[in-house]
Every structure is written in structure tokens, then in C-alpha cells.
Write a structure and sequence with these properties.
Layout: H1 9-40, H2 45-67, H3 69-79, H4 87-93, H5 105-116, E1 124-127, E2 133-134, E3 138-145, E4 150-156, H6 160-181, H7 188-201, H8 204-217, E5 224-225, E6 238-242, E7 247-248, H9 252-257, H10 262-280, E8 282-284, E9 292-295, E10 300-303, E11 309-311, H11 314-329, H12 332-342, E12 345-346, H13 352-370, H14 375-392, E13 395-397, H15 400-419, H16 425-438
Parallel strand pairs: 5-10
Antiparallel strand pairs: 1-3, 2-3, 3-4, 4-6, 7-9, 8-11, 9-10, 12-13
Helix pairs in contact: 1-2, 1-6, 2-3, 2-4, 3-4, 6-7, 7-15, 10-15, 10-16, 11-12, 11-16, 12-13, 13-14
């Protein structure tokens, strides 16, 4: 097998400049609009923000498609955050989930033949020339093995390792610069988590083992499906899996035509993650809409792409269960203690600001239960007020496990909002929390 492609100095400089100028302009634009809103208070400020958001989202989209790699992956995540980001960003960036420009078949064919060490037609009876999915790190093609078995073949882009290394270095510089300007905003835990996790996503053998671990976790459930791995033809850069049909989880029209209730799908998704996080301490950490499908019979939830998973340390999971219990009891001081046990740190070393944040989350949760029709207004208030409360006594350290969990919760929240589901999370959480506690997962 050949060594991974390397980026030239010119390519690295271009990527650094593209990232810096794109996000620098947006940052300065946000500051300028904040100044205008606070000092001048023009009557058309809402329209100004909407126009700025559309233009910013378009510039981010263009940069993501141009640069691909880690930047594209991060922007796919942003596009699923319908619960937090302004709608203009979601509308534009969500297109990255399944409209990523694909690589030519000639490139894919060479990659597969190089990895497998033999001609394509000596392994596959047929191999589609156009992908069924193109993502940030790889693309997937439908194929049939020589015995006729229908499979999905995930092929890693040949230059992606070099792109990821370059992007991580650029993001470290960018986030350090943000930290100098915004002293109470520490984004380094995010890039540290990316640096630890994304290289694992580039090892498809590791992904295959993750998929098998998840399949074993859900073995007793008939409503969660994980495609099987064909190990004979799987390598570090090519993954051959069982082909599983399904409706994209955010395709409301498709779900309706199939007679599937979106609320049942949303509940199934939450239950599957309670099982993973609270009970097993091992979870699929990339639940964006492109990785979640629904089979109408049941319905059943189909999980694909296990490149990014997380195994939580036992003590961390115990503290997570403590947090869940405190949340169910609506006990802000206990929630703050759990935050500290999980590894959060505040500037003054105390817990009062964490108590305030816990109280705010409980207030929002209560509003969402009592006034579901006001969901958009409530989420907007949380998005506006939470940074203010954090700035009052900044959180100076967020544990890396929480960074990834927060990403997962953000993705799930965005999917839930897309499904229009109104779930009683307390009722769903309780049995899993108690089950984990009984098994020794909490004090």
C-alpha cells in the first residue's frame, strides 16, 4: 500500500488563509452587528441579522466544499444544530449532509484496488460508479460481491489524512487567537477532542470493531439495526458492510408516506442513546441525519458510520448518572456538584455559577414541558442568556468527554426538533438512570 498523500507548502498555506479569513470576517461582522444593535438600535436590526447570517452561512458553506476534510466535517455538525444556530445557518449548512461533491470513480477505483491488492472485478460482481453517499472523509458505493451479496463499500479519500493534519494545526492557531481576544472563551478542549478522535475515524478496521460492539449492545433489541461487517474485504481505508435499506431520519415526507410516526422515531432515538451512554458507557458519537435511518416495520432505527465512538471511563459514567438523578430531582446544587465531579472548573473555583446554569436549564426544561408551542422562543432565550451567565463567572475547563457528549446531545436535539417531537424526557430517562444505578453506574 502506498503512503498517505502529503500536502505541499502552498496547499497548507492556502488552507490556513482560507480558514482564517472566512471565520475572521464572520467574527468581525458579529462584533460590528452587536455594536450596532446595542448602541444604535436600528428598527430593521432583525433583518440585518438575518441577511448577515445568510451571507455568513454561504461563505462557510463555500469554504467547507472547497477545503473538505476536517472543516467540512465540522460544518456538517453545525448544519444539524437546528436547536441552537439561527435558521439561516441551518438551511445552508444542512445541505452539506448529503450534497457533498463526490470524487470521480477513477479515484475511488484506484483506492479500492490499491487497498485490496487486486482488480475490482476480482472481488465485486458489480460496483456502482456513482456513490450513494459522499461525506467529509469518505464516500460510499453500492456493490455486489461475487456471490451476489449486496454490500455498501466505504472508501476513504486518498489525501484525507494530510488534510486532517493540516486542518488540526490551523484550528489550533485560530482557537488560540480567539482565546487571546475573548479571554473567557476557551475553545481548545474542542480541538483537543477532534485531535484525539478524528484520526480514529480514519482507521476503518477500528470502525468495523466499533460497529460490532454496538451490534452486540443492541442484540436483545429488535428495533435498532447495525449493518454487519464483511471482514474479508475490509482494510484500514476500505470498509465493506451489509447493505441496509432505510428512510433518512429527517425525511418527514418519506416517513409519512411509509406510515411512520415521527414521535415514535424520536423516542426510539432517545432510548437508544440512553442505552448507550447511561447503561453501556459506549456510544455512537456522530448521530447526524446522514448516519440515521428508519425502517418502517416497527419502526426500526438504523445506525451507520461508527468511525466516531466513545467509551466513557467508569467513574465518569457514575458522575453522569449522578447528574441525571439531580436533573430528575430538579436539584440545582446537586447538579452543580455533579458538574464539578465530571471535571468542570470555574474561574473562582466555586460552584455558584454552575448552580445558576443548572437553574437556568431546569427553568427551560419546565417551560418546554408546559408550553411546547413556545419552543422556538424558549430555545432562543437559552441561546441568548446562557453565554451571559457563563461570562459572569467563566467556566475555564470543560472535560473532553463532555465536549463530545455535548456534540452528541446537540445533534440529537437538532434531529428531534426536525422531527417535531414533544417527548417527556424525564419519563424516558428514569428507567435507564435507575438501571445504570442498580448495575453500579452511580452512587
Amino acid at each position: 500500500m502506498s503512503a498517505p498523500s502529503q500536502l505541499s507548502t502552498g496547499e497548507r498555506l492556502y488552507r490556513a488563509r482560507r480558514i482564517g479569513t472566512t471565520f475572521g470576517r464572520i467574527y468581525l461582522g458579529i462584533k460590528a452587528n452587536q455594536f450596532v444593535a446595542q448602541r444604535l438600535r436600528p428598527p430593521d436590526m432583525r433583518e440585518r441579522w438575518s441577511r448577515f447570517n445568510r451571507e455568513s452561512a454561504k461563505s462557510i458553506y463555500d469554504a467547507a466544499v472547497d477545503l473538505r476534510g476536517l472543516i467540512l466535517k465540522g460544518c456538517q455538525f453545525l448544519g444539524s444544530r437546528a436547536d441552537v444556530l439561527p435558521p439561516e445557518y441551518v438551511k445552508v449548512l444542512s445541505k452539506l449532509q448529503d450534497r457533498v461533491p463526490h470524487r470521480p470513480f477513477s479515484v475511488i477505483r484506484r483506492s479500492v484496488e490499491r487497498e485490496l491488492g487486486r482488480p475490482l472485478d476480482s472481488v465485486f460482481r458489480s460496483f456502482s460508479t456513482r456513490p450513494i453517499a459522499a461525506a467529509s472523509l469518505a464516500q460510499v458505493h453500492e456493490a455486489r460481491l461475487l456471490d451476489g451479496t449486496r454490500v455498501a463499500v466505504k472508501v476513504q479519500y486518498p489525501e484525507i489524512e494530510a488534510l486532517v493534519r493540516s486542518d488540526l494545526a490551523n484550528l489550533r492557531l485560530l482557537f488560540r487567537a480567539v482565546g487571546v481576544v475573548e479571554r473567557d472563551l476557551d475553545l481548545m478542549p474542542l480541538v483537543d477532542e477532534l485531535g484525539a478522535q478524528v484520526p480514529l475515524e480514519l482507521d476503518f478496521v477500528n470502525e468495523g470493531h466499533n460497529a460490532e460492539a454496538a451490534a452486540e449492545l443492541f442484540r436483545e433489541r429488535g428495533d435498532v439495526v447495525v449493518p454487519a461487517v464483511h471482514w474479508e474485504w475490509t482494510t484500514r481505508r476500505v470498509l465493506v458492510m451489509e447493505f441496509v435499506e432505510g428512510i433518512k431520519i429527517t425525511d418527514l415526507e418519506g416517513l409519512e408516506k411509509a406510515g411512520v410516526d415521527p414521535s415514535r422515531v424520536a423516542r426510539l432515538l432517545v432510548e437508544a442513546y440512553c442505552e448507550q451512554v447511561l447503561v453501556a458507557g459506549f456510544f455512537h458519537a456522530d448521530p447526524h441525519p446522514g448516519n440515521l435511518f428508519v425502517q418502517p416495520e416497527g419502526p426500526k432505527l438504523v445506525l451507520v458510520d461508527f468511525g466516531l465512538t466513545k467509551k466513557l471511563p467508569p467513574r465518569f459514567r457514575e458522575h453522569l448518572v449522578e447528574l441525571a438523578l439531580a436533573l430528575l430531582r430538579e436539584d440545582p446544587p446537586a447538579m452543580a456538584r455533579a458538574f464539578l465531579s465530571l471535571g468542570f472548573e470555574t474561574r473562582d473555583g466555586g460552584s455558584e455559577s454552575l448552580v445558576e446554569i443548572a437553574r437556568m436549564f431546569l427553568e427551560v426544561a419546565k417551560e418546554l414541558r408546559e408550553r411546547p408551542s413556545a419552543r422556538s422562543d424558549t430555545i432562543e432565550r437559552l441561546r441568548r442568556e446562557l453565554p451571559e451567565r457563563i461570562r459572569a463567572n467563566p467556566i475555564v475547563r470543560v472535560p473532553s468527554h463532555v465536549v463530545l457528549l455535548g456534540r452528541v446531545l446537540g445533534l440529537l436535539s437538532g434531529v428531534g426538533r426536525s422531527l417535531g417531537a414533544e417527548l417527556d424526557l424525564v419519563e424516558i430517562l428514569l428507567p435507564y438512570v435507575m438501571r445504570s444505578r442498580a448495575a453500579g453506574g452511580g452512587a
